[in-house]
Amino acid sequence: MTKMTGFWRGARVAVVAASALVMASTAQAQDTVKIGFLGPLSGGNAQQGLSARNGFQLAIRQANERGDLPFKIEPVILDDGANPQTGVAAALKLTNDPDVVAATGHWNSGVALATAPVITRAGIPFVIWGAISPKITESNNPLLTRVVPTLVNTNEPLAKWAAEKIGKKIAIVSDTSDYGAANVKAFTKPFEAAGGTITDTESAPVGTTDFRATLTKIKSGNPDALYFGGVVTEAGLVRQQMKEVGLDVPMIGVDGFYDPEFIKIAGAAADGTISGIVKEQENAKLAEMDKAYQAAGFAEPAGTYTKNAYDAANIIIAAIKKAGKDRAAIGKAIRETDYDGAMGHTTFDENGQTKLPVQLELRVVKNGKWETLPQ
Known about the structure:
Blueprint: H1 3-30, E1 32-39, H2 46-66, E2 72-79, H3 84-95, E3 100-105, H4 109-121, E4 126-128, E5 144-146, H5 151-165, E6 169-175, H6 178-193, E7 197-204, H7 212-219, E8 225-229, H8 232-244, E9 251-254, H9 260-266, E10 274-278, H10 284-296, H11 306-323, H12 327-335, E11 339-341, E12 344-346, E13 360-366, E14 369-372
Parallel strand pairs: 1-2, 1-3, 3-4, 4-5, 6-7, 6-8, 8-9, 9-10
Antiparallel strand pairs: 10-13, 11-12, 13-14
């Protein structure tokens, strides 16, 4: 064999080896899909996002460990800062990654309303795990679904209960976000239908720290209670300042401020505050998730939204298993979901809204802790 023949033979071997390496690398890359998570991981609402993120990560970890998928799932976790502008920036970053085949996101309704068009315009199926504004699923976007009931589902029974048990005169304070405005509407209509009267309706931008003048004005109307339509930080300040101005009546609302952080902000004034939340459906899947969560050793305790994000991730994973990596097919498979999870039995209506039945549970702050209020 001549030196030249040996050279070409060696070259062919090298080319074949290189080609094999490229093919192997390509196959390895194709065996990974990415699922995005968006939520508040910093700021005053971070506890909600962190516990939801952990539920999301737990679902992905379990799916990868089962080994029954033809690919590995890689999480892409982004902080929305509970801010629409920050959320849109995170959504744009997510949509620029071609390996992302689906995503789940958001605790804040204002953020979800801002990012959903960005994410779904990119053709990415998007499952909402926490935001509860009715507007989110009203557009019947085929790529958009939500695993959590809307704020209408909690406000309506809360309003009827308040009219019967608290009093017929209630004042309202809310933030000016879509979430705040939607809460005002969702509470006012059924409260008035139950014979109640709204003595005053006031609103302030997110980030407001001094409500004293507003609360003093409300006090003159002698309400039986104050309904707050907003989230944790402002709710805590309102409750604290109600005591300061002598507005000594109960404060009520839905789950936007149902959080230990509310108690920290409001201090001793928090006692007696009532929040209407969706009652957890005790089931084997929820117990299994709780046990796995404890074993995983997350720094943050499981919260209200841990199970939501856990189920959202598992619904996406099941859809990918059924439909492959095609985004449109994944979206279709999500809409066709019939899933028993930690939240209960999930199916979606024609708008992508969960049909999960809702039972209201009342929680009250007593001696610095949230406790169940007997109805």
